[in-house]
Write a structure and sequence with these properties.
136 residues; signal; TMEM33/Pom33; transmembrane; single chain; mainly alpha; transmembrane helix
Amino acid sequence: MVFIMAVLAIFPLVPKSLSNRAYRLSFMGTACSSVYYLYALYGRPKAWTLQAVQVYFQSVITTKDFNYFIYCLTFVTSHLCLKFTLIPILCRSLERIAKFLRHNFSRSTLYSDSLDGNGMIDIYRCQTVCHPLWKG
């Protein structure tokens, strides 16, 4: 979703009001997903003492998702609308999409329906699964 919003914000033929909304939404979406990922990965500090919170933040601050969160927060709160700042967001979205497909593509029914008995992709079966009206 963030990828689509970022593309909408950069594409030059989109109306300016829609482009500005997409610009803000793509940064907000990336900021929210970065915070959620940090919470899912690291949880909360073990204790709410100053030393425990300091150790927790030292481990969180070094991550890539925290850097993206700060980056997005900077541009969401500014009144500038710089389109080229969305390029890292597009790259991060493509990276997450590729990681998701790498882990989950082998379990998809489209992929498993196109395999032959030896685990190799059967081109004819793949074409008929992808395009049922195609006749070889």
